[in-house]
Amino acid sequence: MADISQDTSTSRGDNLFGVCAAIGEDFGFNPLWLRLAFAVALLVDLEHVLMAYAALGALVLVSRLAFRHPEPAAPSAPLSVATDANDTPEYRQAA
Prior knowledge:
The protein is mainly α. The protein has a domain at about 15-70. About 45% of the residues lie in helices and about 10% in strands. It is built from three helices and two strands; from the N terminus they run H-H-H-E-E.
């Protein structure tokens, strides 16, 4: 079985600077909604939307540099279940 590591959405290669993904991650919503809002707004006013995106990108950059997120902890060993003579489950760290 392949080991799949957890990536943050801003470190993947399919984002344009990761602005929408970073804002969605910080505020706890799906970045697709912000991307759709930007796409619709691009049809209305290209220049102002690009300036707003650049400003949000600068804001995300400054916030990420000023307030670094802690590295995720390494996963611990999985728990194994052992039963004793009375069929009472006992949880132990797997060796």
